[in-house]
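Please produce the structure of this protein holding magnesium ion.
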Amino acid sequence: MNNNLQNIPEHIAIIMDGNGRWAEEQGKERIYGHQNGVQAVRNAIEAAGEAGVKFLTLYAFSTENWNRPKEEIDALMGLLVKAIQNEMDNLMSNNVRLQAIGNLFSLPIECQNELKDAIEQTKKNSGLTVVLALSYSGRWEIVNAVKEIIKHDVNENEITENSFATFLNTKYIPDPDILIRTGRERRISNFLLWQIAYTELFFPNILWPDFKKEDLFEIIAEFQTRQRRFGKTGAQVQSEI
Ligand code: IPE
Ligand code: IPE
Ligand code: MG
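Below is the modeled complex.
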């Protein structure tokens, strides 16, 4: 556990990548990797809760993931329903609130219903908020925001960076302090494009099913050693502390 209680990140976002390769390395089907990824999700939620993080956004299924073979998509959607059902007691006893972002209406109806129920049941929990990104992509979200702005007849001079952000799915969520991508790739794959403008990036050299609580604690500890400058000089930031 990380003992530095100063400067705890408020929001951590994770691209949970590498399930398929984890399974293939053991000569198993890709879905076996997704099944084992559920334990890593549990680890991340527990660690974030213990560390005092307020928001944990998990990239579970991208807009582009709809292009995968149908049987993998079906297995992933089934796994999602099962995981939500199995984890409900845990979420309640850990005071976790569940939310979701993305094009949720494109999900199979049983996923939509399961999600809706879980969001409703956990909405009064006041600990960690876990945000599942499902059928989500950053470009989809930005285009969606533009459509909403047009629908609401918003005047050109009312559009600022702050007002634009209120049309995004993440309107109640602060921008991530930390973005983690497992799976040994160093790319964003269309995740939270608007929100990560000044996020600190981490690419641990592990596949998602191997992600442990300690991995999150280590990343938080490294985050606490980084100086975020937001465009200013190091000396300016130092003098503000
Ligand atoms: C991440 O693991 C999970 C999803 C994208 C749903 P992958 O399924 O992408 O695993 P790799 O990257 O092929 O190993
Ligand atoms: C990103 O992983 C999406 C999720 C983890 C849900 P991908 O496996 O889809 O990303 P690419 O295709 O390697 O960029
Ligand atoms: Mg992948």
